[in-house]
Amino acid sequence: MIRRAITIGAAALVWAIPAAAQERGTMEFGAFGSVGIFDKSLTLDKGFGGGGRIGAYLDPRWSIEFEDAEMRATRTLGLKDVNVGLLTGRLVGTIMQSGGLSILLGAGAGSSTETNFLHSYGVNALLGAKFRINDHAAIRVDAVSDWLANNSWKSNQSLRLGLSLYRH
How does DSSP assign 36-66, residue by residue? Predict the structure, then answer.
């Protein structure tokens, strides 16, 4: 009986207490490496790069973040490689949290540029996970899709792996 009570109590404690890093007013500073793929009709193939983000927690389950990602993309048809930049703002919700793991879901809008000719605005979606290292740091993995409004909603996807640091 006591073993059962302890198990239930421990499970409730783990579920109920949000990570200290996700308190209201906490700032998240992140850096990441990324790999991306693009809609072939944009004459872009794949890209590699990195970026950074800054976010603010509105409460333990909701944050708003701004992100800048840069990639060097190869091109189809033997064309010269180009630089691609993505500037995004999004609302992110922590949809599940268990111990040191947080699952994230986000949506936002932003702009995309490419060295030669492509300049677009659009919308994006994020599915991610954070693995808490301690109250001040986490490893973060995100899958992001961007849809370009003035390019017939063509898309690009990227996978990002990085480190987040928190300032309370």
Answer: EEE-GGGTEEEEEEEEEEEEEEEETTEEEEE
For residues 138 and 3, the model is more confident at 138
pLDDT in tens, 71-96: 999 888 888 888 888 899 999 999 99
The token pair that represents 135 in the structure block: 């109250």
Q: Whats the size of the chain, residue-wise?
A: 168
Helix, strand, coil shares, percent, the chain, to 5:
15, 70, 15
Beta strands 82-98 and 154-167 are unpaired
- CA–CA distance, 132 with 67 (Å, rounded to integer): 20
Distance CA 59, CA 25 (A): 7
How far is the C-alpha of 29 from the C-alpha of 161, rounded, in Å?
14
pLDDT band at 120 (very low <50, low <70, confident <90, very high): confident
DSSP state of 115: S
Alpha carbon distance 116, 163 (integer Å): 31
SS3 assignment, position 109: strand
- What are phi and psi for residue 27, nearest 5 degrees? -100, 140
Q: What is the largest CA-CA distance in the chain?
A: 70
